[in-house]
Amino acid sequence: MAHGDPPERDIIQLREGPSTCIARSDGETILSNNGYEVYGLGKQVPVATILEKAIEVNADAIGLCARMMALPGWRDP
After folding, report:
1. Quick one: average pLDDT of 46-55?
2. Which of 5, 35, 62, 66 could cross-link with 15 by S-S, CB 3.0 to 4.6 Å?
3. Higher-confidence residue: 44 or 2?
């Protein structure tokens, strides 16, 4: 983004959990400090809501965050 350009608009949504809260907070801070308008929609937001907000604010990007991990009980037998 060049100096004087209008800010880009980004949507951030995340899954439930403490590590994703940290990631969202860091992402929002980095983007907003670099001139982006960030709309944090919260946790467990339906896809339709994300898309409606993106259209409403003419978003340039949508960022989704989820913590992926494997637990012993999830392994194939």
Report:
1. 90
2. 66
3. 44
